[in-house]
Amino acid sequence: MSSPVPGTIHAERLARLRAELKARGLDGFVVPISDEHMSEYVGEYAQRMAWLTGFGGSAGTAAVLPEKAAVFVDGRYTVQVRDQVDGTLFDYVGVPQSSVAEWLGANVSAGQKVGYDPWLHSIDWARGLEKALAAKGATLVAVDANPLDAAWDDQPAPSDAVVTVYDTKLAGQAAADKRAVIADWLRAKGLDTTVMTALDSVAWTFNIRGTDVSHTPVGLAFALLHADATADLFVAPEKVTDAVRAHLGNSVRIHDREAFEAALADLAGKKVAVDPDRAVAAIFTALEAAGATIERHRDPAVLPKAIKNDVELDGTRAAHVRDGVAVSRFLKWMAEVAPQGGLDELGAAAKLREYREASGALRDLSFDTISAAGPNGALPHYKVDETTNRAVETGTLYLVDSGGQYDDGTTDITRTIAIGTPTAEMRRRFTQVLKGHIALATARFPKGTRGSQLDILARQYLWADGVDYAHGTGHGVGTYLAVHEGPQRIAKPAGGQAGTEEALHAGMILSNEPGYYKAGSFGIRIENLVIVVPVRIDGAEEDMLAFETITFAPIARDLVDAALLSPAEADWLDAYHAEVLEKLGAAMDGADREWLAAACAPIDRAPTALAA
Known about the structure:
GO terms for molecular function: metal ion binding; metalloaminopeptidase activity. The chain is of the alpha+beta class.
């Protein structure tokens, strides 16, 4: 039997969806990568765009009309989308340069009806698209049932894995106390109830965890929290054990997840807080129909979840030491094996996971490992698979961005190493990235400072050469929760971008990850996680903050051009490596520890160090 022509399966699926739309009286439909909780990562049952188009990234949208279709992705996926999606079936549209609303506005005809699933989109997105279509005489229609699900005949069911109790000894605060704080917030604002839809917020608030979404330890659930400190938790009954029921107690009423929409109707006459960035359009529509008064507020769990307590911080520090041992053993293995040839990206990623699993504490990876050799490293969010898998070759750079989920913390680390002898250009760019990393790691800043005010520290040395990187410098990180956690981040100012203008608070965890990417050649990124901590400065007139680095693994010394480091920067690197050896050395012995000691040795200082 001959192999199918590339794109044939997706042509059939696209035709099947169009037939389903026609049967329902619709002319078009919008297919996002999303679920009912507006999650960044979604379960297999919600991978609708991947099924329709073949696109395997974590962010994107497809739009389908009778004669045309398009996929919308940002700059992270410009290359990937062309590798995975048939350009004869779908136009490639870049965002934010364009948008679904602009493309549909340019391609719909008067009288056409475009459908959308109100359980997969935000209310503001829906209202914006409704306005754009109305300007062309077309109509946006909220569907009662997703037509793509009807076309997807082997669609997986949502996970039925049980949720588990997250021990207060790890959480550092009892679930009842968290609910009491939220109840106080509701009463202070004169509100009756808040709708909680973000899966990590539900997990954090109720001190529960799950395995319903790859790499993020959450269970599929909605919640209503009330001003009397009681709550209604909506979760499939087969997922709730007696231990979870006992943990939640009598103040938490448990209902089937399918009962959530109907429960919104019971809020008639109530003042209800809803987060428009995290709650889908269907929730707003149901509350409006019920006669509830809706007030827009950020999910009240978001900020307290981001500001870790001492127990969470101690746990994540321990997780990072454990993880650092695994990463260091992997780096030693790479130094020995990669120059011999025969290694590829998938093999390297599998070996790194093996070292993490050897600790006996790994619950999951915190995201799909970015294992990128040579030119693939120039794709900041590259995802290796059988079709893109590349050999790790001598004379190239290898970039690995990875992390683990442990009961006591979530890790995220990037290291870039040279396979063989690096070029002068590679060393210069690596050292500029390192200088930016050090500048951010050593920053001191007044309380109230926002991440956008610090971002330039990491870019300044690259900017001096007229180069830059397109991604943010730092994102928030959870504690045995989401590896990308708001609201804090470090990035260029971007009007309205969530988290960019959030003040940094002591107890927040962020990444410090400047990079450089030369298209078609190589990529460089150095990433450690940091905790925002108070710092005492003699004579200070402001309350000051700083960063404590908590990621420990060697930084490639052979990629450092010492002539480009100032004495203070060289001191930082030597001190960092001394701490790496101190923290990891006790868990490593024999040849592993010998390698670590050599990798952490002081750098050879240039005769005249320059602060270039």
